[in-house]
Amino acid sequence: MNDRCRQLGLVLEELERRIDAVPLVYCGSNQSNREFRPGDIRIFRNALDALPTGTERLMLILHSAGGTVSVARAIAGELRRRAKYLVTTVPFRARSSALLLCLAADEIWATDTTVFGPVDPLLKSKGAGDTADGPRISVEDIRCFREMAEEWFQLKSEESNFRVLSLLSQHFSPIELTAAYRADKYVRKVCRELLGQHFPSATTSERDRICESLIRGWGGHHEVIAMSDLAALGLKVRAIPEAIFPACNRIISDLQAEMDDPLADTCRALVLHRRYIAKYTAPSIDSEAKGKPSDRKVNARAQGAHWLESELTTNARTAE
Q: Is the CA virtual torsion 66, 69, 71, 75 positive or negative?
């Protein structure tokens, strides 16, 4: 993996000369469907701190299925802390909260086949247990239940509304319904906040309209939003310039080929620029590593899952 990343480092250097901005890569594995997690925030901060002093223009090359909304918001904050100008380039996919992260950019570059996805939050459903990959349900599906009862079956009376709530309560506990309500409010807050970075001249009503569409305007959480759909909403999105598309495509394709290779190491995600590399490896269970910042040792409870950071030409160190 490191040899390939060193080769990609040369590609990133050439890319930097072409776009007058420093490329920073985040790539999550397709095979494991790896999502944003709290430990990613520190990795982004470390990657940004490793950039040359005075770096103010960044291009994030993003490939992600999404993940925790608050983590996407925090990563966006780290990027905007450093970058006066930020473009997010998405050759293949940025679903769910990864699309939220895109909203922190001044511009979004994509292709006609790039897969974006709605930003409505997901909650674990009953039977998911403690596993991160258990069955999940969209908060928007819960909220639409009452609308369905009204529109399909004309159940509009106060008594009907009470019965609808009673039916929901048979599947979701009051605490779960409250959690869904809070998650919906929070994702709307974050969406509006990040739209302020992407579209500072937009009015409150324009941001609300875009936010509502990204959450509610699709048939389900796993529907596909195309680049043209984002443009129709008024977002600043355009095609990846032809001069740099081959490089962006190669970076993500090569990293995916390595991560999805059953004979290679068990890398689940990667953050990379020409001076820095961090790999999230999980030889057994893909769970967050918890270690002491002082010695950057991986706790045994993490069962080997951790971020491994290094300069491309120096010895590696492990991180939480």
A: positive
Render each residue's pLDDT in the chain as its tens digit; 320 residues. 567 777 888 899 999 999 989 999 999 988 777 889 999 999 999 999 999 888 999 999 999 999 999 999 999 999 999 999 999 999 999 999 999 999 999 999 999 999 999 999 998 766 444 445 557 899 999 989 988 999 998 988 989 888 888 988 888 888 999 999 999 999 999 999 999 999 999 999 999 999 999 999 999 999 999 999 999 999 999 999 999 999 999 999 999 887 876 555 578 899 999 889 999 987 644 444 444 443 333 333 345 668 888 886 534 444 44
d(CA 213, CA 42): 31
State the alpha helices, DSSP H only, in 154-226: 158-171, 174-198, 204-216
- List beta partners, residue 138: 122
Whole-prediction pTM? 0.86
> For the chain, first and last CA: distance in Å?
20
* Token pair in block for residue 291: 């270690």
**Cβ atoms < 10 Å from Cβ of 124:** 17
Compute the C-alpha angle 96/87/122, nearest 5°: 10
Which residue matches tokens 């239940």?
145
DSSP type of residue 220? S
Structure tokens at 191: 């969406």
**By the 8 A CB rule, do 235 and 139 touch?**
no
Residue with token string 């990379």: 272
Q: Are strands 107-110 and 122-124 parallel, antiparallel or unpaired?
A: unpaired
Look at residues 251, 269, 262 and name the one whose alpha carbon lies nearest to residue 306.
269
Q: Give the separation between CA 257 and CA 273, rounded to whole angstroms.
A: 18
